[in-house]
Amino acid sequence: MENIIVTENAYNLNNILYLHNTLSELFGHTGCSVRQTEYGGRAGLIIDCPEEYRDIVGAELADRAAEIIAVHYKYDFFRQTLAVSGLCAVENEILFASLIAADLDDDKKYAFRRFEGLSQIAIDGVYNFRLQQLKNKWKDIAEYMPRVFINTQLKDFISYMLEGRKKRVYVDDGKVYDAHYRILKRCALLGGEGAQITREVLLSGGGEVELSGRLEKDDEYYLKEYYGDKIYFSAGKLS
């Protein structure tokens, strides 16, 4: 058995839970033994992995660690450095989600290279000491953003971000799924409240949304606001 350890600051326990939950099926299929641990102000997972699955499991762990950087840490960065007025609390959270989504794939790829091949992964350590170029990029974005949003600026920004995106995501009974009908849970890495489905759809990178079932009022409003005629019911386009 190969041993892989992933740790985080204990106050980021939710990141460890996200990693565990999203990879639980993989752990089961590959015969991994997984233990959650908390010690000395740190939370983590200890994964005992069969040698023949080491590369597969290690790559998926690196992918999830990179996703935690590209979503959770980027969210915290903007929450601390970007203060805008003119938006309500929910719209402010939607702004953060859209900023994260805009470069999510590139940010993940950059972070993934810093985790790839490691047997001991300290997520916060990599963020603090090995991702300065990424943080400089986020700083430039924060400095470029307007300090006041007026009228339709947020809608225009999101419309620009969605331009040319064709990937369809599915919303069914309050959950968001990708094209392979895998449930998406990136919103669990964010803070804030409200419009959770809208934020999950933005984080998915989808350009079209297919709806089934009912939505909360805030999600119904904001999905229509930002996706418009790119929203579909199973039987056709939403009017």
Question: What report would you give on this structure?
Answer:
The protein is α/β, with parallel strands linked by helices. 51% of the residues lie in helices and 18% in strands. It is built from nine helices and nine strands. The strands form two sheets. Strands 6-5-7-8-9 form a five-stranded mixed sheet. Strands 2-3-1-4 form a four-stranded mixed sheet. Helix 1 (13-29) packs antiparallel against helix 2 (54-81) and helix 3 packs parallel to helix 8 (196-204). It starts with a strand and ends with a strand.
Task: Quickly list its features.
239 residues, alpha/beta, five-stranded mixed β-sheet, four-stranded mixed β-sheet, 9 helices, globular
Number of helices: 9
Helix and strand pattern? EHEEHHHEHHHEEHEHEE
Record the strand order, biggest sheet: 6-5-7-8-9
Radius of gyration over all CA atoms, rounded: 19 Å
User: Into which percent range does the helicity of residues fall?
Assistant: 40-55%
DSSP strand tally: 9
Explain the layout of strands and helices.
Elements: E1 2-9, H1 13-29, E2 33-39, E3 42-49, H2 54-81, H3 89-102, H4 104-115, E4 120-122, H5 123-130, H6 132-144, H7 153-162, E5 168-172, E6 175-177, H8 196-204, E7 208-212, H9 217-227, E8 231-233, E9 236-237
Parallel strand pairs: 1-4, 5-7, 7-8
Antiparallel strand pairs: 1-3, 2-3, 5-6, 8-9
Helix pairs in contact: 1-2, 2-3, 2-4, 2-6, 3-8
